[in-house]
Amino acid sequence: MFALVSFSLPAMEVLIRENPDAGCILGAKIIARVVRDKPDAVLGLATGRTPLRLYQELIRLHREEGLDFSRVTTFNLDEYVGLPGTHDQSYRYFMDENLFRHINIDRNRTHVPDGTASDLHAECRGYEQRIADAGGIDIQLLGLGRNGHIGFNEPTGSLRSRTWIKILSEQTLRDNSEVFGSLEAMPKHALTMGIGTILDARRCLLLAFGPAKVRAVEHMIEGPLAAICPGSALQLHSRATIILDENSAAGLRYADHYRWIDKHKFEWQRIK
Ligand code: GLP
Question: What is the pLDDT of residue 225?
Fold first, then answer.
């Protein structure tokens, strides 16, 4: 039904909320709706600081409102090369700690690329195959790097890429090094779904908050479609929802337009 109304929306549905908290609660509501409508939904998940609050809200919805994950399958975007799932900075560990062990999901249905695989190319191909075998991703959750990356797809990577091995940029290493203690301690490579893989998801939901994301947000939504800002590839998606806070939306030329559209949606277009 939503697809029928896309004529009246911008390329991306841009939702600006007063703060990250409100944005994450809205994001959780969208994912919960997908799971309620399709109990065996396939969710694409993300790591980073941005979705933490959203995961807390999903846990609350599970505990207090019976949101059922027992038939849900998940695929995470990315993983560092060389880190086993037991390493406290691996993305597998992040997901176990921040979501999976708090909900009734079958751990065998949760997938994170294996950064310790002896044949990384085979692992990438296998990951694509597992996504296809699961019937594709119903909704892909995304964060946005300060340099515009999505997953670990750094600037200038192919917009048609499939799950692959990426060398992390210095900017990304600096941004993520805090939790590793030092830049030297950080893996310099990662496995990530490609941009083509992400665009194949039936729906994309990207969250970006705070002043550090202003430039990336501006380019992603209003800049040219260009490999230099991997997030801008979402302009090609027919159903991409972007949730921002006032800080990350501060550079948008059409911010008032997005607010206007949000305010004047038909009742049936609203996220409930
Ligand atoms: C990391 C992850 C991305 C994440 C991004 C932003 O490098 N690979 O998936 O979206 O950086 O992280 P944060 O949410 O902490 O700002």
Answer: 97
Measure 58 CA to ligand 1 centroid, in angstroms.
19
Query: Are the CB atoms for 56 and 67 separated by under 8 Å?
Result: no
* CATH, range 13-264: 3.40.50.1360
Marked catalytic residue, from 78, 114, 200, 222 = 78
CA of 72 to the centre of ligand 1 (A): 23
Q: Does the predicted model carry a pTM greater than 0.85?
A: yes
Q: Could you confirm whether 189 is annotated as catalytic? A: no
Q: What burial letters (b/e) apply to 230-257, b meaning 16+ CB within 10 Å?
A: bbbbbbebebbbbbbbebbbebbeebee
Q: What is the pLDDT of residues 37-74, one digit of tens each?
A: 999 999 999 999 999 999 999 999 999 999 999 999 99
Q: Ligand 1 test: best mutation among 45, 50, 95, 229, most atoms within 8 Å of CB?
A: 50
149 part of the active site: yes
d(CA 160, CA 84): 28
Q: Is the pLDDT of residue 22 over 50?
A: yes
